[in-house]
C-alpha cells in the first residue's frame, strides 16, 4: 500500500452514487489533470460524476486532455446546491479558499475528501490525504490507483502526466524525486507521452504572454541586501497588455529563480483593481511559503502565492516588500 488512506477513500467512493469533483481556482495542469483522471476512473465505476471550478477560465494549454470540456466553470460556491451529491473530492488545494475561490464561502455539509500535497494544507475536510513529499496530486493519484489495483488507460495516464509535468516544471524543480520518475515510467508504459505534455504546457505560449514577460523584465528590481528579485505590474499596465492568462505564475517560474546572488523572488500583478496577486519562487531553498502564509496565502518552499486586497497598488507592493525583508532577515 502506498497510502493507508487509499482504502478509506475507495470505501467512501463505493458508498456514493453521485460524486462531485473540484478543480481549484486559477486551475493549473495539476488541478485539471488530477480531476480529469479521477473523473475517468469514477465513470468506469459507473458513478454519476460532475466537475466544478470556481474560475471563469480554465488553463487552455491542457485542453487536449480527454473530457476537458466536462469541467463546469464559473461556479459560485455560496449558491451552489451541494445537497444533491453524496461526496465531494477536492484536489491540490491547501485551503477551502483555494477550493472555492471565495474567502467567505463556508464548507458545505457533505462528506469531503481532500487530496493534496501542499506544505500549508489546513486539513479542512473529513478525510485528508496530504503528502508533502509528492511532486503533485497527479503523482499521488497514480499511487492511489495502484493501491486500488485498477486499470489505468492511456487517457487517464495522459492526465496524470500533464499534472506531474506541470508541477515539476518538466522535472526541473526540487520536488522531482525518484518516486516521480517511477510514476513517469509507469505512465509512459500506460501510453502517456511526456513530450506531448511538455509541448502543450511549456512550448505553447501566446505571443501576448511572451510580450508581457518583457514588461515584467523591464521592471525587474534586485534587493541586494536581502537577496531577492521582484517585479510588480499595476492594473493599468496589466490591462494595457490584454490581461494575459497565467501571466504572474509563468513570469515567476521563469525569471525569479535565475538571478545570481538571490535566494528567492516574486512577481506581483494587480489582476483586479485593488487586488494584488503575488507568486513567490525560491532559488536556493529559502522557504517562500512562510512569506505567503504571513500574507494570508500558502504553498510550498519552492513555490507559493498570496493576495493583498484593499490597498492601493504602491501600498500593497510596499507591504509585500516589508514582509519579504523581514523573513529574509530572519533567515540569515
Ligand atoms: Mn499541485
From TrEMBL:
<feature type="domain" description="DHHA1">
    <location>
        <begin position="250"/>
        <end position="323"/>
    </location>
</feature>
<feature type="domain" description="DDH">
    <location>
        <begin position="18"/>
        <end position="164"/>
    </location>
</feature>
<dbReference type="Pfam" id="PF02272">
    <property type="entry name" value="DHHA1"/>
</dbReference>
<dbReference type="Pfam" id="PF01368">
    <property type="entry name" value="DHH"/>
</dbReference>
<dbReference type="InterPro" id="IPR001667">
    <property type="entry name" value="DDH_dom"/>
</dbReference>
<dbReference type="InterPro" id="IPR051319">
    <property type="entry name" value="Oligoribo/pAp-PDE_c-di-AMP_PDE"/>
</dbReference>
<dbReference type="GO" id="GO:0003676">
    <property type="term" value="F:nucleic acid binding"/>
</dbReference>
<protein>
    <recommendedName>
        <fullName>DDH domain-containing protein</fullName>
    </recommendedName>
</protein>
<dbReference type="InterPro" id="IPR003156">
    <property type="entry name" value="DHHA1_dom"/>
</dbReference>
<dbReference type="InterPro" id="IPR038763">
    <property type="entry name" value="DHH_sf"/>
</dbReference>
Amino acid at each position: 500500500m502506498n497510502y493507508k488512506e487509499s482504502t478509506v477513500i475507495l470505501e467512501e467512493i463505493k458508498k456514493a452514487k453521485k460524486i462531485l469533483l473540484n478543480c481549484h481556482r486559477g486551475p493549473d495542469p495539476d488541478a485539471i489533470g488530477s480531476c480529469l483522471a479521477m473523473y475517468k476512473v469514477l465513470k468506469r465505476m459507473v458513478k454519476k460524476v460532475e466537475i466544478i471550478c470556481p474560475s471563469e477560465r480554465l488553463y487552455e494549454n491542457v485542453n487536449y486532455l480527454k473530457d476537458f470540456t466536462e469541467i463546469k466553470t464559473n461556479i459560485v460556491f455560496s449558491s451552489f446546491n451541494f445537497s444533491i451529491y453524496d461526496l465531494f473530492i477536492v484536489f491540490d488545494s491547501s485551503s477551502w479558499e483555494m477550493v472555492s475561490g471565495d474567502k467567505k464561502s463556508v464548507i458545505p455539509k457533505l462528506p469531503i475528501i481532500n487530496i493534496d500535497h501542499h506544505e500549508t494544507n489546513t486539513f479542512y475536510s473529513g478525510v485528508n490525504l496530504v503528502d508533502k513529499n509528492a511532486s503533485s496530486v497527479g503523482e499521488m493519484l497514480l499511487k492511489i490507483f495502484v493501491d486500488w489495483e485498477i486499470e489505468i488507460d492511456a487517457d487517464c495516464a495522459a492526465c496524470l502526466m500533464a499534472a506531474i509535468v506541470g508541477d515539476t516544471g518538466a522535472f526541473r524543480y526540487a520536488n522531482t524525486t525518484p518516486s516521480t520518475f517511477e510514476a513517469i515510467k509507469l505512465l509512459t508504459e500506460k501510453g502517456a507521452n511526456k513530450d506531448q505534455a511538455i509541448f502543450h504546457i511549456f512550448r505553447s505560449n501566446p505571443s501576448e504572454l511572451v510580450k508581457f514577460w518583457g514588461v515584467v523584465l523591464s521592471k525587474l528590481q534586485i534587493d541586494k541586501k536581502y537577496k531577492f528579485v521582484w517585479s510588480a505590474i499595476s492594473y493599468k499596465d496589466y490591462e494595457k497588455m490584454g490581461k494575459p492568462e497565467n501571466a504572474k505564475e509563468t513570469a515567476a517560474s521563469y525569471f525569479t529563480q535565475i538571478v545570481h546572488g538571490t535566494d528567492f523572488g516574486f512577481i506581483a500583478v494587480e489582476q483586479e483593481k485593488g487586488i494584488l496577486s503575488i507568486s513567490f519562487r525560491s532559488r536556493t531553498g529559502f522557504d517562500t511559503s512562510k512569506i505567503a502564509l504571513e500574507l494570508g496565502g500558502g504553498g510550498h518552499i519552492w513555490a507559493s502565492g498570496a493576495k493583498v486586497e484593499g490597498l492601493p497598488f504602491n501600498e500593497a507592493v510596499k507591504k509585500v516588500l516589508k514582509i519579504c525583508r523581514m523573513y529574509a532577515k530572519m533567515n540569515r
